[in-house]
Amino acid sequence: MYNWSVDEKQLKKHPEQYKIWKLEQMINWGLGGEKLDKILLRRYWRKLFLDPVKKQYLFFLLWPRS
């Protein structure tokens, strides 16, 4: 993944922040051929800054009602 506005080398020094940033980028701007990790999504759910509609849809997929 390439991002012109973020120094990924610096961000990788902080693993948790890097994982959150990467999840947000993948969801907001496209997966780029990768798959989302369901476990990471659930772990960092409260920290993700996402489009409300996308977040609502992902919530529906991650925690379906019976």
Can you walk me through this structure?
The chain is mainly α and 66 residues long. It has one domain. Helices cover 55% and strands 0% of the residues. The chain has helices at 8-11, 15-29, 38-43, 52-62.
Layout of helices and strands:
Layout: H1 8-11, H2 15-29, H3 38-43, H4 52-62
Average pLDDT works out at 88
Number of helices: 4
Amino- and carboxy-terminal Cα gap:
36 Å
In N-to-C order, the SSE pattern is: HHHH
Could you give a short description of this structure?
It is built from four helices and no strands. It is mainly alpha-helical and 66 residues long. It has one domain (10-62).
List keywords for this structure.
4 helices, 66 residues, 0% strand, mainly alpha
